[in-house]
């Protein structure tokens, strides 16, 4: 058996490992969505969920709500618009600004997903995350907060300057 180098390198490759876990979760979520009769990519559901939860949003607000890049949001919105799940309304004063809203078809899809798939996906992921240590979600939230408080670059500079590796910003 070949060594799992990404796993073995620990913190050095944590980003790659988290990405790998994310890709696996999305692929397995896709299967659960398909079983529920939902045929859109799992990666697009955060957009639908944000619009359902927060109401109509600009691309900038949607980018902030999801914590992803503007080009990524724009691509997802374009695909969801082409499928008829969202619509873009251009602001009359500034044609560069668009508001994204769920269409009736999009609202029906979200309601179906809330009943038939999302609770099952959430329960299955929670089951996979259950373990003897602190909550994985709490640990991920803490990591996100730490990376917001001080970038890896700033932390590396502290280490180079002789500061403690575990010191906070």
Strand and helix map with partners:
Blueprint: H1 5-8, H2 14-35, H3 45-54, E1 57-58, H4 59-66, H5 70-82, E2 86-90, E3 98-102, H6 104-116, H7 118-129, H8 136-149, H9 152-160
Antiparallel strand pairs: 1-3, 2-3
Task: Give an overview in words.
- The chain has 169 residues and is mainly alpha-helical.
- It has 9 helices and 3 strands.
- It has helices at residues 5-8, 14-35, 45-54, 59-66, 70-82, 104-116, 118-129, 136-149, 152-160; strands spanning 57-58, 86-90, 98-102.
- It has a 3-stranded antiparallel beta sheet with strand order 1-3-2.
- Helix 2 (14-35) runs antiparallel to helix 7 and helix 4 packs across helix 5 (70-82).
Record keyword descriptors for this entry.
globular; mainly alpha; 3 strands; 2 domains; three-stranded antiparallel β-sheet; Arc Repressor Mutant, subunit A; 9 helices
